[in-house]
Amino acid sequence: MNAIYLDNHATTRVDPRVVQAMLPWFDTHYANPGSSTHEPGRQAKEAIDDALIGIADFFGAQADELIVTSGATESNNLAAFGICLHPRQKRRKIVSVVSEHQAMLGPLQKLQKLGFEVRLLPVQSHQDSVPGQIDLTRIAEEIDADTALVSVMLANNEIGVLQPVREIAAICTQYEVPLHTDATQGVGRIPVDLSELGVDLLSYSAHKVYGPKGIGGLLVRGANARVKLAPQIVGGGQQSNLRSGTLASSSIIGMRMALDIAKQTRASESIDHWKWRDRLWQLLANEIAGLSLNGPGWGSEPCQDENGRLSGEQRLTGNLNVCFPKVDGQSLMLEARGVAVSSGSACTSAHPEPSHVLRAIGRSEDEARASLRFGIGRFNSESEIEQAAEQLIHAYRKLAAFVA
Ligand SMILES: Cc1ncc(COP(=O)(O)O)c(C=O)c1O
């Protein structure tokens, strides 16, 4: 790929160490880990069990709290339908947020059609102190004795805003309501520990953290009697009947390697990404009058505590989302072809809709369409950031000259 890849929220390059770890699982250790009748099968099971322990450990969890899925979409579906459609579920209300990913909003829309009351809470506007963040008091007001599930994402995939999940968990515990978080964009970028966050269910995908596509997980806190899940994929009874299907050995090994690497590199990478994001913003803002930020701002320096956590951050450090005055984001992307980014419209249909996240923070349709999202990742460099800024400024000037 020749383009400068700044779309690391969409997906990440598979780390070469992950690829290496996966290879023998295609042509050497290919036995089914469910085949207990022969030695290759037993060996595969042993290795996969070990990988599952490692994966769960990344989240501060036990292996029996992990359900391996095909990714965050399936994990979100399993959390939503699994909880709400459990035969013993009596409650009929779900509380979530308007700016969740479609992978959560989709299941919620379906549950609404099935008769559930779905309350999607608003978020702070782009003029407020933390654009995109929810208001904790609204959560407390919405939860009641009929609430089956609360679901709030950890970090937003478009504007990078971090939600106060730990505080929401405290409210949910008080009301004995299970809390699910879609942590897909947080994993590998900020600390993600099941108990520390206090959530009952947590979804993620390996491909957002330099692992393979088509694999992820749902963590379910075992000790918590509030969570009863109805399986959504039934068949051979794997994974304690909660998600049937042969375990994808190569992908599980790759996912474990990706998370092991993330454990080692997260703290230093987040500082690099902070600096590159800041540099990109400064370069663009210095040259483009009226450029504005979507989502929360950041301080003058990355501030790390003794545990390698960035303190005071309300946003993923590698995320930048900006609104370019007067131009259309799609046209800007076409003009700056050497930079791979994504626009403020969902391009899943013939008529791209303006981003629901940007609309949720009060951006107009035109402003949303004039916005681009940048996702900085492990394989970027400062010089790439500078080249990308140069190309974008050049492209912007060309387009702006037409509308002047
Ligand atoms: C926050 C969030 N949730 C869920 C998903 C869906 O992940 P996957 O496509 O791997 O299932 C994504 C992917 O963009 C995401 O960013």
Main attributes?
seven-stranded mixed beta sheet; four-stranded antiparallel beta sheet; 39% helix; 404 residues; Aspartate Aminotransferase, domain 1; 2 domains; Aspartate Aminotransferase, domain 2; binds pyridoxal-5'-phosphate; 15 strands; alpha/beta
Number of beta-strand segments: 15
Strand content: 5-15%
CA(first)-CA(last) distance: 34 Å
The largest sheet, given as strand count, sense and whether it forms a barrel, is:
7 strands, mixed
Large-scale geometry = globular
* Helix-residue proportion: 25-40%
Number of helix segments?
13
Could you name the ranges where pLDDT drops below 50 across 5 or more consecutive residues?
Answer: none
Task: Classify the fold: give the CATH topology of the largest domain.
Answer: Aspartate Aminotransferase, domain 2
Write down the CATH class of the largest domain.
Alpha Beta
Can you tell me the number of structural domains?
Answer: 2
List the topology elements.
Layout: E1 4-5, H1 16-22, H2 24-27, H3 39-58, E2 66-69, H4 72-84, E3 93-97, H5 102-113, E4 117-121, H6 136-142, E5 147-151, H7 165-175, E6 179-182, H8 194-197, E7 201-205, E8 216-220, H9 249-287, E9 292-293, E10 319-323, H10 329-335, E11 339-340, E12 342-343, E13 345-346, E14 353-354, H11 356-360, H12 365-369, E15 371-375, H13 382-403
Parallel strand pairs: 1-11, 3-4, 3-5, 5-6, 6-7
Antiparallel strand pairs: 2-8, 7-8, 9-10, 10-15, 12-15, 13-14
Helix pairs in contact: 1-9, 3-9, 4-5, 9-13, 10-13
